[in-house]
Structures are given as structure tokens and as C-alpha cells.
Amino acid sequence: MSRINVLVVEDEPLIATDIEEYLTNVDYKVSTIAKTKTEALNALKNHDFDLALLDINLGNNMDGFDIANTINSHYGIPFLYLTSYSGKNIVNQAKVTRPMGYILKPFEEDDLFCSIEIALYNHGQNQRPQNLCLRTINDQIFLKITSKEFDILEDIFEGKTNKQMATKHYVSINTIKSHVKNLYEKLETHSRSGTIVRIRELMNN
Amino acid sequence: MSRINVLVVEDEPLIATDIEEYLTNVDYKVSTIAKTKTEALNALKNHDFDLALLDINLGNNMDGFDIANTINSHYGIPFLYLTSYSGKNIVNQAKVTRPMGYILKPFEEDDLFCSIEIALYNHGQNQRPQNLCLRTINDQIFLKITSKEFDILEDIFEGKTNKQMATKHYVSINTIKSHVKNLYEKLETHSRSGTIVRIRELMNN
DNA sequence: TGCATTTTCACCCAAAAAGGTGATTTTAAA
DNA sequence: TTTAAAATCACCTTTTTGGGTGAAAATGCA
């Protein structure tokens, strides 16, 4: 497995080399340090990065936000802001660009490492199975789903048949049918696929 | 708009009150401070939180991970770890629980504020409806799905029955069954719900 | 301890889906 | 215009689901 390839965007050379050293120490690879927006966009165009670390303020401009937007629309890699701005205003501007983290200067090697690891992992998982949440569902329906019923619901959501569920849970298929029937009543559905659709809806509110 | 309701899980009273003060300063509401796993789970059961801040280590146990798992499966609120562990091992254990952030002690008020704001925003945005894409699907299977079959597939994904589809498309139910059969062959599935699961997978790559 | 809920299971019937075979008509491309 | 692929439809059998009724354990609280 090759090392994670990082783009560092930072206009202050001293800080940039600091970051580079930190990242190298924890086994990431810094293949480019960009000092301006132009350099950053160029690097993005010409290389494949796994992650970007963005300073928001580059030479008196909030160019970090622009870079973030370009990353979102064109490259889809995760990124974190490394900045000394902590004001409400800036943070609100920053959050709508959907960074995976916001680290305030000064920071330490470990801060960087932990946040990056979480960011990379979450980014990788984000286009992935959506998992159900009992509370979210129950908040939206009148007759509440019990925890056993919830287990069955998860299996239905995974496409399992009654027989498979009976085997998995070491109970009679009749028991499964009973749970399924109760689920349909509580969710006001009448079929497995209809139930999956319903759950998709409930989990998106 | 009422203030963000935060659950703080921290076994060290001094740190807990520090966190509470920080959060109150930046206009969050700390409605519960839990010192043990039991207290935390109880609080989650009895209150509606918008966010949780978890210490990983509670009295010599890694109970923070358990709490995180319960949050994911039962409550679906975003959470951040506040901890002094920065080892690779711990971080790797932590990331699979999908925290929205990982903040190392000691931290400051602003660190907390920035990370929480990002976490809350990203969590809120993460739920989205998904739509199918023929190209994406066909790129991943050997026998390609035709455009008519794709129409049927969309209906299956929406939970429709064969009869409903027949009515909608002005064809015999036998025709629908024929299309469905072909879809199962091409997608290597054997049921409607299994097909929905398969499509979910194919659309997430 | 007693009561309510949950979980377990059985049996029955009807409806829907799954699986197979075969065949005709349309459509689109060579 | 021939030909292959796609779309249409029929019929049949078996399996799985859905829907209804009822009831005995097990569990969890009060």
C-alpha cells in the first residue's frame, strides 16, 4: 500500500515546512506545497492527491474557500482547513464548503495525524451503506418498533429472506413472519421492498 | 432556534466542568455530564441530544467506543472524541466508530467550537436521496441492462409490484415478469429486495 | 409478586413472486 | 433487407410472502 499523497496549501514557508515534516514523520507523502490559489489548482489538475490541507488565507485573500469549492466540484478528495481564524463568521463560511476538519493553529503533529486519519476514513465510508437508526425511525412513527423487530428490519433492509433470518436468529420461521407482520403494521407497508423504500425515506429526515 | 444540546461524557470532573464552561461560552447547552458508560447510555435513552463529546477512556475501560457504537445504531447523532490518546492503534479503533472529529487534550475553546460547527453541519448534510444511473450500473456488470429493463429496475427500487408496473407501463403483467426475470439474471439476484440491495451497492462505487 | 409487553411459535389461506419454456412482434443496426 | 437484439405475451409449477387468528413462554417493570 502506497503512502497517502497530500497536497499542502500554505503561503507561509516556515509553517509549510513544519507541516511537511509532521506529515512525513507519520508516514504521509507531501508531493506538493502550493503557496497560491493558482499553484494549488494547477497541482490538483496535474496530480492525484488523496487529501488536501488548506490554509484559508493566502496573501490577504480567502482563496482557501475557492480551492475547496473546486476540490468539491472537480476532484472529490477530502480536505481539512489549517488556519488561525476561529471567528464565527469564518467558520460559517468554511463549513458550507464541507471540509472534513478544521484545525486551529498552532497545532501539533498528533492533532494533524488524528484528524487526518478520521477524515480519510470517513470520506471513504461516506459513499457507503447507510445504516439504520432505531431512534430516528421511531421518532416518526406512532407504534414504536421494538429492538428485536429492529434487528429483523435491518435484515429486511439487507435483502434477507424469512428463512435466512430464521437460521441466523435461531428461531422458527413463524417467529420471523410474526415480527415481519408487526413491522408492516407499524411502518404501514405491505411488502419487503415497500418497507425498504419507507426506511430510506425515514432515514433521510 | 434553541441552543444545541450536548452530551458530555468525561470521567474527570475538572475537565468536564472545563468543557461545560467552554461550550456555554460559545452558546451551546450542556444538559448532561456523564461520568460512566451506564450514565451515558441512560442519558441517551432519556434525552434528545444534538451532539455528544466522548472521552474514550472511562475509568480504565475503552467505554467510549461502546457508547459510540450505541449512538450509531440507536440515536444517529454526531459525536466527537475528546481524548489524550493519539496512538495509531487507538485512532484506528476510533475511526471505525465514525466520529465526526477527534480532538486531542489539551484543547482550547476555539478548537472545540470550530470542530463542533463543522461536525454538526456535515452531519446534517450527509443524508441524501439516491438515484440510479444506468451507465454506472452497466459499467460494473457483464450482461448489460437495456433501457426498458432499467425503467422496470427503477420501479423495483421504488417498491412497486409487478401489477403496478404493468398498469403504469400499459403492458401485460407477463411482460413485466419477463423483464424482472432478465434483470435478476443480469444482476445475479433472486428477489426484489436482494435486487434493491445490489443496486445500492452498485450505485456506491 | 403481579402485570404488561415482547418474543416466541403454530396453522391456515390467499396473493405475489420466482423460475422455466416457448413464441410472436418490434426495433435497431449491419 | 436481412438479422440480431429487445420487447412483448402465455402458461405452468413451486416457493415465498402477506394476512388473519390465537396462544404460550419470556422479559421487564412497578
Question: Can you summarize this structure?
Answer:
The structure is a homodimer of 205-residue chains. With 205 residues, the first copy, chain A, is of the alpha/beta class. Chain A is 55% helix and 12% strand.
Q: What's the structural blueprint in terms of helices and strands?
A:
The structure is a homodimer of 205-residue chains.
Chain A: E1 5-9, H1 13-25, E2 29-34, H2 37-46, E3 51-54, H3 63-75, E4 79-83, H4 88-95, E5 101-104, H5 109-126, H6 134-138, H7 147-157, H8 162-169, H9 173-187, H10 192-203
Parallel strand pairs in A: 1-2, 1-3, 3-4, 4-5
The structure holds a DNA duplex (30 and 30 nucleotides).
Tell me what the structure shows.
Two copies of one chain form a homodimer. Chain A has 205 residues and is α/β, with parallel strands linked by helices. The first copy, chain A, has a five-stranded parallel beta sheet with strand order 2-1-3-4-5, with helices on both faces. The first copy, chain A, has ten helices and five strands. The first copy, chain A, has helices at 13-25, 37-46, 63-75, 88-95, 109-126, 134-138, 147-157, 162-169, 173-187, 192-203, and strands at residues 5-9, 29-34, 51-54, 79-83, 101-104. In chain A, helix 3 (63-75) links the parallel strand 3 (51-54) and strand 4 (79-83). The first copy, chain A, has two domains: 5-126, Rossmann fold, CATH 3.40.50; 134-203, Arc Repressor Mutant, subunit A (Orthogonal Bundle), CATH 1.10.10.10. Chains A and B meet through helix 4, strand 5, helix 5, helix 6 and helix 10 of A and helix 3, helix 4, strand 5, helix 5 and helix 10 of B. Chain B binds a DNA duplex (30 and 30 nucleotides) through residues 146-149, 161-163, 171-175, 177-182, 184, 190-192.
